[in-house]
Design a protein that fits this description.
One of its GO terms (molecular function) is P-type zinc transporter activity. With 652 residues, the protein is α+β, with helices and mostly antiparallel strands. The protein contains 21 helices and 22 strands. The strands form 4 sheets. It has a 7-stranded mixed beta sheet, with helices on both faces. Strands 2-1-3-9-4-7 form a 6-stranded antiparallel beta sheet, with no helix packed on it. A hairpin with a 2-residue loop joins strand 16 and strand 17.
């Protein structure tokens, strides 16, 4: 997936507060400058302008006229006007002839040409002030993502020959041992080799609740050690760490534009030249129809028209609205791969979800063991444990926790995973099957019970072409699963559960949670058919799962949402939206963030068009001055910006 990266490490390297790029949206990054430095040109210009106005109107003197007066206003104009004139020149060089810089340049130079010096300076001054405020707004909107960057320490402490050495995080190799003191942030993903540790995972999940880890468990870059000194064995290179992938995902998100954003950009490229043409016509056409035609009068009206037409409010506030939505989501542990998914998720009418690991903990425990008397229970369980160890499924973990250490003497041949059924292998020259009862049916293994009578998840076992018995395994429902379904229903979203688990187990969970529709005993291709049936009604669908096993369903859905972004690299690659802390209640939150973002974007569009339309008409008719024009441009842009950053303060 080729995406243009927004390199957040380079934020602040641009030349000045008013710098833009219409190809990549407005660029208001200026973190190398203090707020005072950004406002300084405007302060100088404002001071000179106020003195000039005072000399023109309130202070009696006889020297402030002619070339002295013009030079003074030019001096007031240069601090705020020169950067814009330079940007206009750069835009023309890049074949962007109708940029807002050119509009402001023509309007203000035109004002000087007809002797309206105070207004020419004032328009550029307020434009420059507006640009600084927009810069500050953009910086604030990006603060959440920049905070993520701060979670990666540049240096770590590595233990070699019992000696602690501080080295660059990028230079650490897989297998090295990192020493992490209390309060320090982990720089790379690894395995905890100390007996236990407690970590703050807020950088990854948005949750500050401590997460306890024990020896052998995975710990991730960005986690903060809360207690005693711990040691971590590095398992992943710095550039491949989970946090690095998350950062890359969020950085790339701004390059995936929403349809509304793309439309506004295309619209601005057409709209601006038309307005320039209209301004020319406003100046010239009245010459043929108005008896007391005065060129300077109609040129002034055209200049007002040009200032009003500047599309800054739209081109700035709309991308910022989407960026704010992405930032608000990431602050809550939800990662959107692009602003286009914010738009799509806002329209979702159906949420289809997996059961295990999505609405349930995915932490299984063996409930009962039923082994046929013809087989040795200990031997069968040892073989099942060893075979299941080759799977990452939660069921395999439950069996391992129940049976214990693996028997190294057991050797398998021809191990095969049969999708939607289970595992098959040869051991001691005989065939071993471990999976669901459909696996036994597939290989014509006869059994003397009704699988549907067993409520819990069942692991059937066959050895040497004979039914050997089964294990039952139970999972627990997540504590916020009920809340998740309730919130989705409050958003008028229908909830469907599709699972490969037994139908009676799935129906039991669905009934307890109030899920609208549930289907069990489904193979991956069955899930696809069920999803197609929902989409055939013409309604939008989001699928929530692990993003790997359910790849076909994720691809078919309008939005793929991955639960457990901390657990699977492939999840981050596959899904459109990643919920980092496994909480199903975040599904409704993601939809709500999408809805609020879309609402704010359309509020800004309507505000900008409404005000500009009114003032454009007034300007063309000579009823609006440069001051009204400034409000229609800079004022509306600032109002739109303030509205856009509002999403950062919302509680979801």
């Amino acid at each position: 997936m080729a995406k243009k990266k927004l390199n957040l490490r380079d934020i602040g390297t641009e030349k000045h507060a008013g710098e833009h790029s219409h190809d990549a949206g407005h660029n208001h990054d200026n973190t190398d400058k203090t707020t005072l430095q950004m406002f300084l040109p405007a302060i100088i210009s404002f001071t000179l302008l106020i003195i000039a106005i005072a000399l023109d109107n309130w202070i009696t003197q006889n020297w402030f006229n002619g070339w002295v007066r013009i030079a003074w206003y030019v001096a007031a104009y240069i601090p705020v006007g020169l950067p814009v004139l330079r940007d206009a020149f750069d835009s023309i060089r890049k074949s962007d002839f109708f940029s807002e810089f050119l509009l402001m340049s023509i309007a203000t130079i035109g004002a000087f040409a007809i002797g309206e010096y105070p207004e020419g300076v004032a328009v550029m001054l307020f434009y420059a002030v507006g640009e600084v405020f927009q810069t500050l707004a953009v910086q604030r909107a990006k603060s959440d993502i920049k905070t993520l960057l701060d979670q990666r320490p540049d240096e770590v402490t590595v233990l070699k020959d019992n000696q602690a050495t501080t080295v660059k995080a990028e230079s650490v190799e897989i297998g090295d041992i990192i020493q992490l003191k209390s309060g320090e942030k982990l720089g790379l993903d690894g395995e905890l080799i100390s007996e236990k540790g407690s970590f703050n995972t807020a950088a990854l999940t948005g949750e500050s609740k401590p997460d306890s880890k024990t020896k052998g468990e995975t710990v991730l870059a960005g986690m903060i050690n809360l207690n005693t000194v711990v040691e971590v064995k590095v398992t992943t290179a710095y550039k491949d760490s989970k946090l690095s992938k998350i950062l890359e995902l969020v950085q790339n998100a701004t390059s995936q534009k929403a349809p509304t954003e793309l439309f506004i950009r295309k619209f601005a490229k057409i709209y601006t030249p038309i307005v320039v043409l209209l301004a020319v016509l406003i100046t010239i056409v009245p010459m043929f129809f108005v008896q007391d035609y005065t060129f300077s009068k109609w040129l002034y009206r055209a200049l007002v028209f040009l200032v009003i037409s500047c599309p800054c409010a739209l081109v700035i506030s709309i991308p910022l609205g989407y960026f704010g939505g992405i930032g608000a989501a990431s602050k809550n542990g939800i990662l959107f791969k692009g602003s286009n998914f914010l738009d799509v998720i806002a329209t979702i009418k159906n949420v289809v979800m997996d059961k295990t690991g999505t609405m349930t903990e995915g932490v299984f425990k063996v409930q009962e063991v039923i082994i046929h008397p013809d087989f040795d229970e200990k031997t069968i369980l040892a073989m099942v444990n060893k075979l299941e160890s080759q799977s990452t499924h939660p069921v395999a973990t439950a069996i391992h926790n129940f049976v214990g250490e693996l028997d190294s003497k057991i050797a398998f041949e021809n191990v095969e995973e049969i999708s939607g059924h289970g595992l098959k292998a040869n051991v001691n020259g005989k065939e071993l099957l471990v999976g669901n009862f459909k696996l036994l049916d597939k290989f014509s293994i006869k059994y003397d019970l009704d699988p549907s009578s067993i409520v819990y998840t069942t692991i059937a076992i066959a050895y040497d072409n004979k039914f050997a018995g089964y294990l039952t395994i139970a999972d627990s429902i997540k504590e916020d699963a009920q809340e998740a379904v309730t919130k989705l229903h409050n958003l008028n979203v229908k909830v469907t559960m599709l699972s490969g688990d037994k139908t009676n187990v799935v129906e039991l969970v669905a009934k307890e949670l109030g899920i609208d529709t549930a289907f069990g005993d489904l193979l991956p291709e069955d899930k696809v058919e069920k999803l197609k049936a929902i989409k055939s009604k013409g309604e939008s669908v989001a699928f929530v799962g692990d993003g790997v096993n359910d790849a076909p369903v994720v691809a078919l859905s309008d939005v793929g949402i991955a639960m457990g972004g901390l657990g699977s690299d492939a999840t981050i690659e596959t899904a459109d939206v990643v919920i980092q802390d496994d909480k199903p209640s975040k599904i409704a939150m993601a939809i709500n963030i999408g809805k609020q973002t879309k609402k704010i974007v359309w509020q800004n569009i309507i505000l900008a068009f409404a005000v500009k339309a009114v003032v454009l008409v007034l300007g063309a008719g000579g009823l609006a001055t440069m001051w009204e024009a400034v409000f229609a441009d800079v004022g509306v842009a600032l109002l739109a910006i303030l509205n856009a950053v509002r999403i950062q303060k919302m509680k979801f």
